[in-house]
Fold:
Amino acid sequence: MCIHILQGLDISVTGMTQVLWPRLLTYVVPTQYTGTLKPLCRCLQEMAEKKMQEGGKAACLDYSGQGKLPTPQGLLARLLVVASSPYEREGHGYSVLQLLKALHQNIHAAVGEMWGVKIPALLQHLEGKVLVGSDVVHGG
Structure:
């Protein structure tokens, strides 16, 4: 039932982001919530992007103020582990990579520009497209 709620969650509803950001991050790292990662990552990605549009500081997490938030290292480790097997569990890897890209400033300031290039290439690969030079070759 939780997965269905997350799938139907509309973050554009007034106040939804304020209620759920960053609380939903607490469900990313514990393995018992692995089944919810696909819709959870989608919601978190949308919220992070919305917060970034509001202004850079709005998307920044205050790790000292919220005792239950996972550390940047914990988030990175968990998301990379799931992304390493992108086709398992209904394709969680795609959603995880999108979330990594959206959370770049909360993971480490130095990864933003690199992830802006590398993660879209990985996402295209997962979609069945492989970039060769400037041409797109569709995978089989």
User: Anything to note?
Assistant: The two ends are 35 Å apart (CA to CA).
